[in-house]
Every structure is written in C-alpha cells, then in structure tokens.
Design a protein that fits this description.
Helix content is about 45%, strand content about 20%. By secondary structure, it is α/β, with parallel strands linked by helices. It folds into two domains: about 150 residues, Rossmann fold; about 110 residues, Rossmann fold (3-Layer(aba) Sandwich), CATH 3.40.50. The protein has a six-stranded parallel beta sheet with strand order 4-3-1-2-9-10, with helices on both faces. Strands 6-5-7-8 form a four-stranded parallel beta sheet, with helices on both faces. Strand 7, helix 9 and strand 8 form a beta-alpha-beta unit. Helix 1 crosses helix 10, helix 2 packs across helix 3 and helix 4 crosses helix 6. The protein is globular. Bound molecules: D-glutamic acid. D-glutamic acid (DGL) binds next to helix 3.
Amino acid sequence: MKIGVFDSGLGGLVITRAFIRALPEYDYLYFGDSRHLPYGEKTSGRILSYTLSAMRYMISRDCRLIIIACNTATSIALRYIQQRFLPCEAPGVKVLGVVIPTAEVAAADNAEKVGVVATTATVRSHIYRAELCKLNPRLGITELAAPALVPAIENNDFVRAEEEVRRLAPSFAGCDSLILGCTHYPLVKDFFRAALPSVKVVSQDELMAEKLADYLHRHGEIETALTRGGSRRFEVSSLNRRAAEVAARLFPEIPIQKAAGL
Ligand code: DGL
C-alpha cells in the first residue's frame, strides 16, 4: 500500500520531493492531472469531478493514504471526498489536504495579519479565511487571486513570474505571514521573500513533510498498512515534452510516465 500524492499538474512534485527526503522508506505514487490543468480557473463542479476521477484512479493503484497537494482541489473537493466519497467507495483509505496544516503554520507566532495568495477558485472558496478564523477569530486576512502566476511558471517564464510577484507584494506588506496557497508557488518563493523581507512567507514544500510524519506517528493503523519498499512512480494524465522537462528538472532520476488507461 502506497502513499499517493495528487496535484493538478507537476507543482506537487516539489512537495513529493520533501516527503521522499523526510520519509524515504515508503512507496509513493504521484499523479498529476496535467490534461485538465489549470484547475484554478475552472468551475467547482469540474474541479470536483476531476478530483474524484483522480482519487478513484489512485485507489485502484493501491494508495492507502492520499495527500491532495493541490490547494484548489483541497478547497473544493476534500470535504466531499472525506464525508461522502470515502465512506461509500473506499472506507479504508484516508485522504488529506494541504490547507489546514498551512493555516496552522501561518497563524502561529501570535500573527495578527495573514495574507493568502492562491488561484481564483481557492480564493473564491474562502477556505483559508475559514480555517484561519477557526484558529484565531481576530486575525486580519487579505486574500488575493493571482491567475497569471501559474501560467508564467508552467511556461518556464520566471521573468514574468517575478514581475507578477512584485505587482502583488505591496498588498501583503503589512502582514505578519503570507500563505503561498498553490502548489506552483514554492517555485517562486524566493521572489516573494525578496519582495517582502519582513513577512514570514509560508511555503508548503517546507512544512508538509513534517505534518505528514506527525500524522503517521499519530495514526499507527495507517502507518503499519503502508509498504516500505522505497519505490516511486510519477504519472500524469497527459504527457508532453514540456511536462517531461519540468519533471526531469525536479527529479532527474525518476522518469515521469503517462498513467495507463486514463
Ligand atoms: N495545483 C493548483 C493549486 O495548488 C494550481 C494549479 C492549477 O490551477 O491547477 O491550487
């Protein structure tokens, strides 16, 4: 039984890399739904439907624990998956998201003002606002959608990505912490840190491995069900040359493959 990591594209490989470094003994399946990227500009219905298909596929490939690394899919689909889908279709499987662990880190250290930069769908869901308010109802929260950032990163256009970060940064200048609420943004975290030197920039590649280790520590029934062969398999729903190049940059030693039958 494997640990599955799901994202709408390849951005989640950055989080997978952190998991594998911290917890190398487990078997991993990565699945990126590159055919339907970007999720962030799609309707909630489509995001839910694509995410459910991905869950069915990963469960059919023996994933016992799945981390939805995609903030957009977490925002729109996680609750439905946990409350409706899993009890009916896969009661033994656990699916976790990235929003609550990220909000916990952002709200720590007596933060008073927290910024959130994310896709249009994530901001529209106000999931970060809701989770941050549960942690501290007095928090000041600024949420901003950055629809131009994912295409710039996907196109390897880091000049444009940096310009976009500089344009967004002044909106977060008064914040104590800033949540990079999208799997692609760890790739531009240095731009955010340079533009906002006094803000704690919360990047999911730096926090999720510790949260996963802690989860496994607290859930022995899941941990013992996971196999420890150290295998890794990275798959996408649509494979093109650019995707293969991005994946090869992040993980030169592991080839990315087209998921069979999808
Ligand atoms: N993976 C998505 C997220 O974390 C960003 C890319 C997309 O729009 O699909 O929100």
